[in-house]
Amino acid sequence: MNVSSLHVCLFQANIRWKAVKENLMHYEQCLEQIADKPDLLIFPEMFNTGFAVDTIQLAETIDGESVGFLRYCAKKYRTAVTASLALKENGKFYNSLLWIMPDGEIYRYDKRHLFRMASEEHLFSQGQERLLVNYKGWIFLPLICYDLRFPIWSRNVRKSNEFLYDCLLYIANWPSSRMQVFKTLLSARAIENQSYAIGVNRVGEDGNGLLYSGNSQVINPFGIIMSEAASKEEIISVTLNKEDLVKYRMQFPVSLDWDV
Question: Interior CA angle at 112 toward 110 and 117, to 5°?
Answer without folding.
Answer: 115
